[in-house]
Specification:
The complex is a heterotetramer, with two copies of chain A (136 residues) and two copies of chain C (483 residues). Chain A has 136 residues and is α/β, with parallel strands linked by helices. In chain A, strands 2-1-3-4-5 form a five-stranded parallel β-sheet, sandwiched between helices. In chain A, strand 1, helix 1 and strand 2 form a beta-alpha-beta unit. The longest helix of chain A has 12 residues. Chain A is globular. Chain C is α/β, with parallel strands linked by helices and 483 residues long. Chain C has two domains: 343 residues, Alpha-Beta Barrel (TIM Barrel), CATH 3.20.20.240; 68 residues, Glutamate mutase, C-terminal domain. An eight-stranded parallel β-sheet of chain C has the order 1-8-7-6-5-4-3-2. The chains are: A alpha/beta (136), C alpha/beta (483). The interface between C and D is large, with 48 and 48 residues.
Chain lengths: 136, 136, 483, 483
Amino acid sequence: MKNNIVLGVIGADCHAVGNRILDYAFTEAGFEVINIGVLSSQEDFINAAIETNARAILVSSLYGHGEIDCRGLREKCEEAGLKDILLYAGGNLVVGKQDWESVEKRFKDMGFNRVYAPGTTPQMGIRDLKEDLKIV
Amino acid sequence: MKNNIVLGVIGADCHAVGNRILDYAFTEAGFEVINIGVLSSQEDFINAAIETNARAILVSSLYGHGEIDCRGLREKCEEAGLKDILLYAGGNLVVGKQDWESVEKRFKDMGFNRVYAPGTTPQMGIRDLKEDLKIV
Amino acid sequence: MELKNKKWTEAEFNKVREEVLTHWPTGKDVDLQEAAQFLKGIPEHKNFAAKLRKAKQEGITLAQPRAGVALVDEHIKLLQHLQNEGEADFLPCTIDSYTRQNRYNECQVGIEESIKTNRSMLNGFPAVNHGVHNCRKVLAAVETPLQARHGTPDSRLLAEIIHAGGWTSNEGGGISYNIPYAKSVSVERSLLDWQYCDRLAGLYEEMGIEINREPFGPLTGTLVPPSMSNAVAIIEGLLAAEQGVKSLTLGYGQCGNLVQDVAAIRSLIELSEEYFKTYGYKVDLTTVFHQWMGGFPADESKAFGVISWGAATAALAGATKVIVKTPHEAVGIPTMEANAQGIKATKQTLNLLKGQRLQMSKELELEIKLIKAETKCILDKVLELGKGDFAIGTVKAFEAGVIDVPFAPSKYNVGKMLPARDNNGAVRYLEFGNIPMTKEIKDFNKQLLEERAKSEGRQVSFQMVVDDIYAVGKGTLVGKPEK
Amino acid sequence: MELKNKKWTEAEFNKVREEVLTHWPTGKDVDLQEAAQFLKGIPEHKNFAAKLRKAKQEGITLAQPRAGVALVDEHIKLLQHLQNEGEADFLPCTIDSYTRQNRYNECQVGIEESIKTNRSMLNGFPAVNHGVHNCRKVLAAVETPLQARHGTPDSRLLAEIIHAGGWTSNEGGGISYNIPYAKSVSVERSLLDWQYCDRLAGLYEEMGIEINREPFGPLTGTLVPPSMSNAVAIIEGLLAAEQGVKSLTLGYGQCGNLVQDVAAIRSLIELSEEYFKTYGYKVDLTTVFHQWMGGFPADESKAFGVISWGAATAALAGATKVIVKTPHEAVGIPTMEANAQGIKATKQTLNLLKGQRLQMSKELELEIKLIKAETKCILDKVLELGKGDFAIGTVKAFEAGVIDVPFAPSKYNVGKMLPARDNNGAVRYLEFGNIPMTKEIKDFNKQLLEERAKSEGRQVSFQMVVDDIYAVGKGTLVGKPEK
C-alpha cells in the first residue's frame, strides 16, 4: 500500500514557504505527497484525500486563524467516509503567544491526532507519521 | 552664609564621570562645591565638611557597595559635631536590580535625608537641596 | 475592461466604482466629496505623505510596526500603546486575512467570536466590516498618520473605506499583493484592481489631498534576490504613477548581507528615479526597508539581535522608513507589549545611527551595478513582451517566467527560479528558470554559489535553499549542512 | 627598583615575589612549579590564548560577558548559566572593588555578609581571599577559558593566584588599571607592578604555557578619543612584550560612529604590529571590542538596541572578541538571566554578520590615517620624554599631560584634555591641553566641533560634553541642547 498523504495550508492563509519545505521533506522521506497548496478549504483537503486514498491529512496554518479554520474537519471527514484518517495540524495555530498545552488540548479535542508547536522540524512530523502508520 | 557642600564618591569606588558632572552642575547652580573626588572614606567626607563648614554632604556610589560603605556615616557625623548636616546619597547604591523603595528605606534608616535612584538628573538634587536649605 | 498602462478615464473609474461600493453594506457610506472635505481637515502631522517627505528631507529613518486586532476599541488601545510606549512614528492597521480574500461574512463571524471569547479571533482589523466611521474613530484616537497594511489582491472597497476614513496610505500593488498572497487570482485581474486603488489615490491628489502608496517590497519575504523585488517595485511604481499617484514609497525586504542590502536600496532609488524621469512622472519618492521577513529565533534576546541589525541596516542604507518585527515573531502575532519592545529597540538603534551611512566602497559600487544590470534585464524584457506597455508586459512576463517570485503560492507564477545565499550571505540566483539575464550575470551568480558549495563540501542543491530558509531561526545567516 | 622598559631578571622578580606572596595568607599556596604542571594539564579548549588564536584564524568574533559574585558556589552557578544559557565563548571572573584596592580584610567582611544575607554584598569575585584552590574549582566547573577582569593597580598577588588557579588570561595594565581606577597611585608604581604581572605571564610562556594578557582598552569608558586609547594600548602592549608576554589582546571601547570605531580597531592592529616589528617582539596579537561603556537607557528593549549595535560594530571591525553589556546596565549589576540575554543578542548579531566586514571607503581610509597620525604624535613625544624608554617616557608623559585621559580619577592625570562628538558622532578633541599634535590635526578637530556647534546654534563648551555623556542613555549618540 502506498503511503499517500495530503498536505496543504488551510483557510485564507497564503504562507507557501513551509508548504514547499514540508513537501520536499516528506517526499524525501518516502511518502507520496499530494500537495493542495495554500488557501485550501476543508473540502479541498477531504476531496484530495478521497481521490488519492490518503492515509493522513497534514494541515498547516501559519496566520493565527487555525482554530476557526480547523473546526469540524474531523466530523466532515467522518461524514465523507474517511473514518480512521490521521489528522495532523501545525504552524502558528492561534493568534498571539498562548500557553502551548491549552492550544494542543483544544486541537486534540477537535479530533486532531497530532498537533505541532511553532518551530517544529519536518523530521519530527515524519518520525511521528511513520510511527502512527507503523512504517519501519 | 555661603552654601558650602561636600561632594565625593565613597569607598573603593572610582567612578569619576558623574562626580565631574555633579561638580559642574552644583557649581553652576550657585553652590560652593568642595569636591573630594573618588575613593573617599567616611573620614574624608567628615573632615572636609568640618574644615569648610559645609551644610550638606553629597555621597555618590556607583559600584554597588554603597550599603556597606555608607553605614555609620550619620553616627560619625554626630560624633564629629556635624549635628544637622544634610546627608544625600545617590547612584547605583546596591548590587543588582532591587526594589527601589526598599533600598530607599534602608538608606533613610541609616540617616540619609535624601536618596536618589539610578539615572536621576543633577537638577533634581539641586532642586531638593535648595528646598532643604531654604534657598529661593 | 482591457488592461493597459493608461490612466483610467473618469467614466471608466465611476462605472467600476458603482459596483465596488455594493460589495458590502458599508460601501454605501463612502462619499468621495465628503471624504475629501474630511481629509482636508486632517492636520499635517497625521498625513502619511507629508511626514515621509519631512523625514526624507531631514535624512532620518522612521519606524512603523505591524498591528491589528478584530475590534475597534481594542485596536485603538493597541495603537495607542505602540504610539505612547513604543514611540512609533507611523501606525499601521494590519488587515485580517479574511478581508484580504474579500470574505467579509467570515470577518463578521470573527468579530462576533472575538466579542464572545474576549480575545481577537482575527489576525487583523477588518476595516471593510467596520466601515468609514470606525476608521475615522481610530484616526481620531492617535497622533500619527495611519496606513492599511494587508495583502489583498482586490483591495478596491478596502481602499475606498480606509481613505474616506482618513488613513492616508495604502500598502500593496497588483503584483506584490497578488503573487505572494493568492493562489488563483490572475495577474491581469489584480493589476486592474490595483489600477483602481491607484486611480483613487490619484483622484484625491487632484483634489489637493496627499495620499501615499506603498508597493509591498519583500514579496514572499524568502530569499528574494534584490533585482527581482526591485523590478517588481519599479513596475508597480510606474503603474501607480500613471494613475496619478504622487507620493510613492518603494520597498525592499532585508536579505542580511549589509553591502547587498544597502546596494538594493540605493539601486532601487536610482533606477526608479531614472524610469520616472524617462516616462515623465513627477513623484515624491521615498523608501521602506523591511526588517528580516524570514524565520526568527524563538529566543527573545536573539530576536532582539535580528531586529536591531535590521534597524541598523535600514539606517546605514538611508531608508526613509523601517518596518519593525517583534521579539514574538517566531511564535506568531505579538502582544502589544512585545510589539512596543521591537519598536523601542529599533528606534534606539536608529537614533544611535542618525546621520551615519554606509560609505561607498569598491564592493558596494559593484553590488549596485550588478543589481541594476539584473533589474534592467528583467524590465527590458517585460517592456518588450508588452510592446512598450508595462501592464501588458507584466502579465506576459509572469506567463513566460520572466518575472518569477520564489516560494510564491500563485499558480500564475512559474516558480522555476531558485535562490540561495553565497558565502557572504548575499542572495543569488541558483536557478534562473526563464529569467532573462546576460551570460556574464549568470556566470557570476553561478560562480558565487559554487564557491559556497565547495567551502561546504557539497553540491549546489535544493537542500542548500532549505538550510538557508531555516538558518536565521537557528542563529546564522547562511545555512550550513548538518554535521 | 628603578623603572625602565627592560625585562626583569630572575633575581629581581624573585625578590619582589617573596614579599608579594605574604600580602594575604592565600599567597603561601602558590607554587610556580606545581602551578605550571597543573596548567599543562588544562585542555586546549580552556586555554584563553589558544581559543583566541583559533578565532583569529577563522576570522570570527567571540563573545565574553562580565560577571562575578562573592561566593564560590554562587559564582560557579552564574558562570554555568552564562555558558549554557548565554552560550558565552569566554567566561570572566570579575573581581570585586575591595580586592582591586588590595583591601582583603574588607573582602572578608563582604564574604561573610554575603553568606549571612544570602545575597552577594560584593560586586565581584574576591579571588585573592578565595585562593588558588577555589580558582581551580571554578575552572573545573566550566568548559571555556577563564579570565580575571578587574581594575587593580597592584594586581601582583591576584595574578599569582589566578594563573596558579588555571585562569589563562589577566586583564589590565600599568596605565589602564591605574588612571581610571585609582586616585593616588603613581604611574611609576603601577607600571612596575604590572611589569611584575607581565613577567609572571612571560615566565609561564617560557615554561611552555600560554597565558593571554589584555590591556584594558576603554580606559574611563567615556568619550576617550581613539588615538588616546590606542596610544595607551600600544605602550602597554610593548611593555608586556618586553617582559615576555606572547599572547596579547589589545582593546578599544566603542565610541558609536561606525567608521571611527572600525578605523580605531584597524589602526590599532596596524600600528601596534608596526611597533612590535620595530622593537623585535614576536607577539600573537588579537583585539577586543567593548560594547558601549557609557550611560545606558533604562528601558531594556532600548538597551538591546545598544548592545546589538555594539555587537554589529565588533563584527564589522573584525575584532577577535567582544565584551558584552546587559539589558540591566542602567541600573547596575545584572541578574544572571539579564546577563545571558545580553550575550544571546550579541551572539545572534555576530552570527548573522559572520564574515561581513566594513569595506574600505574614502572615509574609512581617512579616519584610519587620522587616528594613526594622532597616535604617532603622542607616542613620539612619549619616547622623546623617556629618551627612548617607553616606561620612563610614560611617567613623564602623564606629568606633562602628553598622555591625558578624560574624566580619570587619578591625580597623576593632568585632566586638561576635553573630548566631544562631532556631527557624525565621532569623538574629537575639544581641548588638547598639553597633548602634542600637529597644527593640521588640531585645526581639523576644531573645525569638526565648530561645525557641530554651529548646527546646534551654540558655542563649543563643556555643556556639549555633558550632553554627550548623557546622550546614549537618553537615546541618541550626539547630545543635543535641551529645547
